[in-house]
TrEMBL record:
Domain Glycoside hydrolase family 13 N-terminal: 150-229
Keyword presence, Signal: yes
BP-aspect Gene Ontology terms: carbohydrate metabolic process
Organism classification: Bacteria, Bacillati, Actinomycetota, Actinomycetes, Kitasatosporales
UniProt entry keywords in alphabetical sequence: Signal
All residue ranges annotated as the Alpha-1,6-glucosidases pullulanase-type C-terminal domain in the record: 727-877
Signal sequence interval, chain numbering: 1-29
Organism superkingdom: Bacteria
CDD domains: AmyAc_Pullulanase_LD-like (cd11341), E_set_Pullulanase (cd02860)
Alphabetized GO MF terms: pullulanase activity
Similarity section: Belongs to the glycosyl hydrolase 13 family.
Name of the molecule in the record: 1,4-alpha-glucan branching enzyme
């Protein structure tokens, strides 16, 4: 059992609340030098771990430094981590541990609100000091009481209470509409509160927090917005005292909103969409670039979404729509490129140069730079200063999507913040410095996610994730959440989100929480990799939870290579590997290409099962294997326990669009019509798989970003969707931005200059119609939505798999259906002797559908032979 004090947190707080805190340094006093690192970690009230510490004479000091009259000491004695502590902090198990001297425990709460260092002499007797990481001890002392305390603005009978968790602050005051209001500290929870009057409603506010900031090496007084804000002024300069239940924020019909029928995750077909991309260049939209564009039912964009919904798309996944840190929210402040971009050559460097000059100040960003997690982004609203616009128009967007037959998924980014420390874009770290972010062994903030990593393993950061998601679900009627870099969350945190959502009911909360779907990126990397700090929410670990993770195995097999290849021409199943080779030496010899293609086909088979770990089949070498036996870059390909655990996709906002990837990979002379067919074939591997599937908006329209592999701030020019085929598909808008693409320019330039690679209306509309036919087949055939691994094993097989399998062709039998994926440039015959004498025909959707080529597919009853045209997926049904 972990060592604990024999009294409650509240009792400790009561004993120490009368202690006189040393006064903070005056503005004119020079602070003592701050240690460059924070290698000591105070993990609970009894225990300090200090990397590389000697085993004697260690102590904590707070107050002033050295031997002055203001210094106070907490003595440490050599100890060892208990089994519970080792389990909670596996990355610290081999570091020296120390116990807090029982005689000095009375100083704990005072020390945590002061300058705090760990001190010991080195071998020569010289004083050595380091900063102290305190998240663990804050959780131990304060989180039990704080976890149940409401935070942010909470209204009762129209009167608000504002609450903020700031256990290490010396003082916290409320700056309300230009005046200062005192706040009361609860010593057990570390929560500061101010109760207001009805007159506070709608007023701007900030918290004024005086606290020791290790990154600044001094006490600071920060004026900071509320991490639990529900509304903001433009550019997030102030929080607003707003009750989301205020009927004035609800659009007409909000309280009786009728949603499309819930679709279980294992049958979900999802369209990933950026709010601004959707309408900013749609000439038929009355609200380009705004939330309200989704209320324009007659616009080209909404008509297309409605067509996808009618065909079987069930969800629209919106890229982040919470408050974004790097977009000026007022239109008057947003910069625009001043070049005639349309007049420049298709392979010019000028477009990206011009767009780049305004990228930091324009209206565009993907939104993976969160500022406030639970307020809608203001740049998409008609008036970013108005809660009626931000909240009301976001709700109208949800209404519009629901009215088109689509449920709404929100992309959430709780794994990092835009900034930390004393940066102006930092919120959490300026209230409780050093708590909300994950710190490395030296005390620096981990940045493996690209930005300042948060630490959802800490109680109050984990609680913020849960509270924020529940608010979006209850107050905005969001139907699903996609977690960015979910593998950087503890599995327990994501399961806590699931549990909190499951508790929401229509009668109590206005939503059915059990119908809300969850999925995310289960990548395994960074300082948390391989469960180094906690059990992560990774692909393998989330199996069996009902929360899906993106399946990169099948994605790479379809496209070829990986997202970070030096040569982008590495081919895959749907891009001509071996069967239609390009000239890249990166593809290897013909024999190497054949072997890799056949292995890709095994990866695809596993993907088509829902990426099941225990699914048994014959691989292309003739062995009987399970999905987990198939290799994916040294890891098991199959990891799912049920067909809702893995999400299939061929492209998403990250990396090149599918069309652009095929532009690189298919032989340069491939006609536009064949490129379109390969696009549909690639999409089919996800659309006709077990489990959920996602496609990037516009992919069915051959969407291009002019070969840009990372368009997060490439502006409207490279990102905007083109719903009208006469506007093209986005290909040939200049060389993609240099920052992430310059090394690919030698490959990109001749492609962009080739007019044959720019598809016409016929190719665009044909591809979209063929994709919708696939969605209809999926939606009307129950066999594509099997709900258990056993059901998949019993119903799904690959009858021609083995040493004689045709390279470039995968044949799948699914109940009374036979699906043939022919990625080769020739018509292929697939002989299934076991079906000889049985009646099959092309599925009625394709037989009456948009693609005249697939209608030439054939079946010979006598021999059980299926004939499928080149670059075609054909679905046959038993008669």
């Amino acid at each position: 059992m972990r060592r604990t004090l024999r009294r409650t947190v509240a009792a400790v707080a009561m004993a120490l609340c009368a202690a006189v805190l040393p006064a903070p340094l005056s503005a004119n006093a020079a602070p003592p030098p701050a240690p460059a690192t924070a290698a000591a970690q105070w993990i609970d009230r009894d225990t300090v771990v200090w990397k590389d510490a000697r085993r004697a004479d260690a102590r904590l000091e707070f107050g002033t430094e050295g031997e002055g009259p203001g210094v106070r000491r907490i003595r440490l004695t050599p100890s060892a981590l208990t089994p519970d502590e080792q389990a909670a902090y596996p990355h610290l198990r081999n570091f020296p541990a120390f116990a807090v001297d029982p005689r000095d425990r009375k100083f704990t709460l005072t020390a945590l609100r002061d300058r705090l260092v760990a001190v010991q002499p080195d071998a020569g007797g010289r004083r050595v000091s380091t900063g102290v990481q305190i998240p663990g001890v804050l959780d131990d002392l304060y989180a039990p009481a704080a976890a149940g305390t409401p935070l942010g603005p909470v209204f009762r009978r129209g009167r608000p209470t504002l609450s903020v968790w700031a256990p290490t602050a010396r003082t916290v005051a409320l700056e309300l509409d230009g005046r200062t209001v005192p706040m009361r500290r609860d010593d057990a929870s570390g929560v500061w509160q101010a109760r207001g009057t009805r007159g506070w409603a709608g007023k701007p506010y900030r918290y004024v927090v005086t606290v020791w900031a290790p990154t600044a090496g001094r006490f600071v007084t920060n004026k900071v917005t509320d991490p639990y804000a529900t509304a903001l002024t433009a550019d997030s300069t102030r929080s607003l005292v707003v009750d989301l239940a205020d009927p004035r924020l609800a659009p007409k019909g909000w309280d009786r909103l009728r949603k499309p029928a819930a679709v279980p995750l294992n049958r979900a077909r999802i369209q990933e969409l950026h709010i601004r991309d959707f309408s900013v260049e749609d000439r038929t939209s009355r609200h380009p670039g705004r939330y309200l564009a989704f209320t324009d039912r007659r616009s080209d964009g909404m008509r297309h979404l409605k067509a996808l919904a009618d065909a079987g798309t069930s969800y629209v996944h919106l890229l982040p729509a919470f408050d974004i840190a790097t977009i000026p929210e007022r239109r008057s402040d947003q910069a625009r490129p001043d070049c005639d971009l349309a007049a420049l050559p298709a392979d010019s460097e000028r477009q990206q140069e011009c767009v780049g000059k305004t990228a930091a100040r324009d209206a565009y960003n993907w939104g993976y730079d969160p500022f406030h997690y639970t307020v809608p982004e203001g740049s998409y609203a008609s008036d970013p200063d108005s809660p009626r616009a931000r909240t009301g128009e976001f709700r109208r967007m949800v209404q519009g999507l629901n009215g088109a037959g689509l449920r709404t998924v929100m992309d959430v980014v709780y794994n990092h913040t835009a900034a930390s420390g004393q940066d102006a874009l930092s919120v959490l770290d300026r209230i409780v410095p050093g708590y909300y972010h994950r710190l490395l062994d030296d005390g620096s903030v981990a940045t493996s996610t690209c930005c300042a990593n948060t630490a959802p393993e800490h109680t109050m950061m984990g609680r913020l994730v849960v509270d924020s998601v529940v608010t979006w679900a209850r107050q905005y009627k969001i139907d699903g959440f996609r977690f960015d870099l979910m593998g950087h969350h503890p599995k327990a945190n994501i399961l806590a989100v699931r549990k909190a959502l499951d508790a929401l009911t229509p009668a109590k909360d206005g939503v059915d929480g059990k119908a809300i779907v969850l999925y995310g990126e289960g990548w395994n990397f960074g300082e948390v990799a391989d469960d180094a700090r906690f059990v992560q929410a990774t692909q393998r670990n989330m199996a069996g939870t009902g929360i899906a993770t993106f399946n990169d195995r099948a994605r790479d097999a379809v496209r070829g290579g990986g997202p970070f290849d030096a040569d982008p021409r590495v081919q895959g199943f749907a891009s001509g590997l071996h069967t239609d080779p390009n000239t890249s030496p990166a593809n290897g010899t013909p024999a190497e290409q054949r072997a890799r293609l056949l292995h890709y086909q095994d990866l695809l088979k596993v993907g088509l099962t829902g990426n099941l770990a225990d699914y048994t089949f014959t691989d292309t070498t003739g062995r009987t294997v399970k999905g987990s036996d198939v290799d994916y870059n040294g890891s098991p390909a199959g990891y799912a326990a049920a067909p809702g655990d893995a999400l299939a996709y061929a492209d998403a906002h990250d990396n090149e669009t599918l069309y652009d990837a095929l532009a690189y990979k298919l032989p340069p002379g491939t006609p536009a019509a064949d490129r379109a067919r390969m696009q549909v074939l690639a999409l089919a591997t996800a659309a006709l798989s077990q489990g959920p599937a996602l496609s990037q908006a516009g992919t069915d329209l051959l969407r291009s970003k002019s070969l840009d592999r990372n368009s997060y701030e490439s502006g409207d020019w490279f990102n905007a969707l083109h719903w009208n085929c006469r506007d093209g598909n986005g290909f040939g808008r200049g060389l993609p931005p240099a920052a992430d693409n310059k090394d690919k320019w030698p490959y990109a330039r001749p492609l962009l200059a080739d007019p044959a690679l720019r598809p016409g209306c016929r190719q665009i509309t044909d591809a979209s119609a063929a994709y919708r036919d696939l969605l209809r087949i999926h939606a009307t055939e129950p066999a594509f939505g099997l709900d258990s691994a056993k059901a998949v094993q019993d119903a799904l097989s690959f009858p021609l798999s083995g040493t004689e399998e045709t390279p470039g062709v995968v044949t799948m039998r699914l109940g009374e259906l036979v699906v043939v994926f022919n990625a080769t440039p020739q018509r292929q015959l697939q002989h299934l002797p076991s079906l000889a004498g049985k009646r099959y025909g092309l599925h009625r959707v394709q037989a009456r559908g948009a693609d005249p080529v697939v209608r030439t597919a054939s079946y010979e009853k006598r021999t059980g032979t299926f004939g499928v045209p080149a670059r075609t997926v054909a679905v046959f049904a038993a008669r």
